[in-house]
């Protein structure tokens, strides 16, 4: 069941990648424009509230699609070896307290929570600034469970939020992104 919340109107990003022949980490429900593997001006799995299972090779919804709940990017398939970049557009200028990302950490399968997240805000969508310092995730080499990672945004005022995620392994998998914000 899709439940778009948080005032998010659209998000734009590069489409997820294929992992072998069995798992496609695509945003299957994205309803916006898809051009040359770039998604823009739509909503999809990142805002549906469905958290993925740690074992992405499962098909808990019995859809015939393993890892369906996850959108994922492979480090060596990026044209630009930089971060995964996702731009969220909101219904109005908002005051942001935090963003929470549900991330996979199945490190024995080359999947880790991002190493660093950089968060930028913009009022008009053209010029972005950074309100808070980069968030550095402390690598967990013991527990492989997927988990929520909350990043405080220090009451950032913006209508657009750009989230840049830097790799700590071969794969980054995200299933849900939620913002804590209020109208400004």
TrEMBL record:
KW Lipid biosynthesis (keyword) present: no
Membrane topology term: Single-pass type I membrane protein
Pfam families tied to this protein: DDR1-2_DS-like
Entry keywords, A to Z: Disulfide bond, Glycoprotein, Membrane, Signal, Transmembrane, Transmembrane helix
First-listed, main subcellular location of the protein, grouped into a coarse class: membrane
Source species, domain of life: Eukaryota
Protein location: Membrane
GO (cellular component) term, any one: membrane
This protein's name: Discoidin domain-containing protein
Organism: Dreissena polymorpha (Zebra mussel)
């Amino acid at each position: 069941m899709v439940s778009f919340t948080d005032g998010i109107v659209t998000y734009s990003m590069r489409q997820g990648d294929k992992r072998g022949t069995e798992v496609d980490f695509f945003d299957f429900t994205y309803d916006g424009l898809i051009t040359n593997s770039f998604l823009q001006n739509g909503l999809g799995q990142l805002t549906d509230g469905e958290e993925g299972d740690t074992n992405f090779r499962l098909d808990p919804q019995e859809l015939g699609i393993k890892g369906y709940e996850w959108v994922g990017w492979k480090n060596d398939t990026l044209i630009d070896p930089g971060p995964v970049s996702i731009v969220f557009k909101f219904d109005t200028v908002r005051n942001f307290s935090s963003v929470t990302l549900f991330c996979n950490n199945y490190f024995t399968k080359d999947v880790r929570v991002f190493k660093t997240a950089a968060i930028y805000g913009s009022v008009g969508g053209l010029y972005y600034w950074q309100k808070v310092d980069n968030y550095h995730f402390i690598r967990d080499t013991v527990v492989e469970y997927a988990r929520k990672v909350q990043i405080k945004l220090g009451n950032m005022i913006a209508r657009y939020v750009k989230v840049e995620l830097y790799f700590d392994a071969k794969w980054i998998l995200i299933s849900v992104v939620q913002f804590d914000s209020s109208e400004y």
